[in-house]
Amino acid sequence: MASCSQILVHFASFLILLSLQLHNLVVGVSSATLSITTDTEALISIKSQLSNDTLNTLSSWNHNSSPCNWTGVLCDRPGQRVTGLDLAGFGLSGQLSPYIGNLSSLQSLELQNNQLTGLIPDQIGNLFSLRVLNMSSNMFEGKLPSNISHLNDLQLLDLSSNKLLSKIPDDISTLKKLEVLKLGRNSLYGEIPASLGNISSLKNISFGTNFLTGWIPSDLGRLHDLIELDLLLNNLNGTIPAAIYNLSSLVNFALASNSLWGEIPQDIGHKLPKLIVFNICFNKFTGRIPGSLHNLTNIRVIRMASNHLEGTVPPGLGNLPFLTMYNIGYNRIVSSGVGGLDFIISLTNSTHLNFLAIDGNMLEGVIPETIGNLSKDLSKLYMGENRFNGSIPSSIGRLSGLRLLNLSYNSIFGEIPQELGQLEELQELSLAGNKISGGIPNIIGNNLLKLNLIDLSRNNLVGTIPASFGNLQNLIYMDLSSNKLNDSIPREILNLPALSNVLNLSTNFLSGLIPQVGRLSSVASIDFSGNQLNGSIPSSFSNCLSLEKLFLARNQLSGPIPKALGDVRGLETLDLSSNQLSGTIPIELQNLQVLKLLNLSYNDLEGAIPSGGVFGNLSAVHLEGNINLCLHSPCKTHGQGRTNVRLYVIIAIVVTMILCLTIGLLVYIKNKKVKVATTVSEELKPQAPMISYDELQYGWGEKPSAAGDVYSFGIVLLELFTGKSPTDECFTGGLSIRKWVQSGLKEKKVQVIEPQLLSLIFHDYPSEGPNVKMHCVDAIVGVGISCTEDKPDERIGIRDVVRQLKAARDSLLNQSDESPSRDTKSY
Q1: First to last CA, the chain
Q2: Which residue among 127, 423, 565, 643 is least crowded, i.e. fewest CB within 10 A of its CB?
Q3: Mean pLDDT in consecutive groups of 10 residues from the start of the chain, 827 residues
Q4: C-alpha span between 444 and 463 (Å, rounded)
Q5: Residues near 338 by Cβ (< 8 Å), separated by ≥ 6?
Q6: CB contact burial 216-250 (16+ within 10 A = b; e otherwise)
Q7: What distance in Å separates the CA atoms of residue 714 and residue 716, rounded to the nearest whole number?
Q8: How far apart are CA 600 and CA 598, in angstroms?
Q9: What is its main location (predicted)?
Q10: Residue 590 · residue 614 · CB < 8 Å
Q11: With contact defined as beta carbons under 8 Å apart, do 752 and 822 qualify?
Q12: DSSP state, 334?
């Protein structure tokens, strides 16, 4: 037994010794695992997950040398472990390997400005020594790593400019050493965690350009070392917590593009004395501009545009020597008294001013000549949509750095000063919507060669379009519409290669032929409508391969429609109405598969109408006013057309007179208590449906009466001249045939008249004098409206109906007898 017990003791001792040796062996293996060798293997694995075409910069990453000598790798002093990995801006693509978690001594991981994709590996949470984690400006997606809160030594976390779709986790507040937290320009949603207020070390919070909602937590007011608070471009609402205004260390305060409201404290400049950037644009703030902001002598950016601020611009702008941007546009700011615009003069002390926007307010008065003393660094000047008057100061020509000048939609008069030609850096010039007169200076086309936008529309400019505009080879957008410009279109502007947006010369007095279109292959919209252009439409419009909209309406263009227009496959709108175009409609227009609106009305087109493409959608095609087009019946000669107009109207009047007599008889019979059922003969108007008009009036519980008969007669008239049944399916939601006709006449929309009748009427001399036929039709329709008043006692009497219809008939017949020469003038 003793020997047995001794054996057991020895065996137990052996097991203990064995376990200790095994323990030492395991520790030794673990220690060996966490070595430069395993770091090497981890880095090789990371490289293997990257795309081959981006690995040139990592050519040194191979087994032939220590990783401490590899590009972007940093080791500790003994060279035992990798402590830093900086691959920023290497153009890397591919995915980040989970083996990144084996670099357990890593203190800094910088992968920003690459094209890495996929999920951020959860193994990032194993890098317990990490202090800097910057993976910004990549294409990472998915959620924030769930165990990122384990990185207790983390001081900087920058995951901005990725495609992360996640909430901000509440336990991120466990990162007690965090100083910089940048998660902007992702797709983060949910509310801002109030627990962030527990990270007292935070100096930078940047959550801009996400989908965050809710209120700004007042707990952030405990972050007394906070330097930057960037929450712009989210969906935040509510007011700014008062505690935020106690963060006296704030330098960058950016809350733009949310739905925040309330007033900004007038003493904000005293509470936040270190402010350099103040940006609250595009919110719903009210009240006045805080004057204390103008006492912050170091401030550089003040942006308060697109709110509901009111009052005047407070004094003190002259105290801001380092100001680079001042934007108070689109508020309700006013100027009062003689010195109401003195703040512009004060800004001359801001010698670094680069951006000034005071547009979209209610400022008025004459723009001071001293505006030319503003900073030579000023590149953008927005003063449009105010109430400025007077002329454009010639001193603006001294602002040699100006790239954008917008004075549009004021009440400025006088001529465009020649001095604007000195702004050789100018790229955008907008003077639209004023009362500017005189000609367009040639110097604009000779000197402003960097212009890419010019908008002089809605003024009183006269003279010719300068041929020197052909020098504007960078021009993308040109709008000279709604002026009094005359003479021909310079061929030079139809050869501007960069013109890719709009060329609008409409509503002027331009005449002559349209020049051949040259290098306008990129232009999207051309509008020459409302001029006096003549001749044929150039087939060279087919060179405009990117053209989406072409407006040539209301000119004197003649000849056929070019077949080549069918080659402009991107065309969405084509308006050639109210010209003198002749011939048939080119079948090639069927090829315009994206065409949404085709207006060929009021020309002299003839023949068959194509049936394919846009022509299959009647609501998208306007062909009225072309008498010789085969619309709903075989083509007629011109002589037949004129005869049909007269016969159509006269027969209609005869029919209505018969109906008057019928109604008179009905009234007589009803007064004798005799019930008579009346119907309208289908032979009077074959296309009109048979309906019981008495039901329209009496179906509402009205007793039979003379007023009721008048109502029914009025409905007949409206149906006869509009071609629509009162029970048409389009009359829903309270809309009746009477309301539809009355609305159309008030808004001068002749479309309420039956299309074939309208086409016949307007074919004969559409532009001369009062159209007697149309007056006749208007009078008859007016009788129909008077007969269908809602209240019976407001309806016209039957005798007045007869009198007015006779007057309309006599007017038409008298005009026809007095003008025999006009019947054959065109034939």
Answers
A1: 143
A2: 643
A3: 36 33 31 75 94 83 91 90 96 95 96 96 95 98 92 97 96 96 98 97 98 98 97 98 97 98 97 98 98 97 98 95 98 88 95 98 96 97 97 97 98 97 97 98 97 98 97 97 97 94 98 93 96 96 94 97 95 97 95 95 95 90 93 53 50 55 52 39 37 43 64 82 76 76 63 65 46 73 85 81 79 58 33
A4: 15
A5: none
A6: bbebbbbbeebbbbbbbbbebeeebeebbbebeeb
A7: 5
A8: 6
A9: membrane
A10: yes
A11: no
A12: B
Residue 424: Cβ-neighbour burial (10 angstroms; 0-12, 13-18, 19+) = exposed
Strand pairing class (525-527; 573-575): unpaired
Number of Cβ within 10 Å of residue 735's Cβ equals 12
Q: What is the pTM of this model?
A: 0.73
366 beta partners:
389
**Dihedral (CA of 692, 696, 697, 701) sign:** positive
Pairing relation of β-strands 556-559 and 404-406?
Answer: unpaired
Backbone φ, ψ for residue 420 (5° rounding) = -60, -25
Pairing of strands 73-75, 82-86: antiparallel
The neighbouring-strand residues paired with 163 are 141
The tokens 């044929």 sit on which residue?
536
Structure tokens that stand for 275 in this block: 């402010």
Query: Of the candidates 692, 765, 679, 762, which has an alpha carbon nearest to the alpha carbon of residue 727?
Result: 692
DSSP-derived letter for residue 167 is B
Q: Hey, what are 167's tokens?
A: 């909430």
- Residue 448 is encoded by which pair of tokens? 């402003």
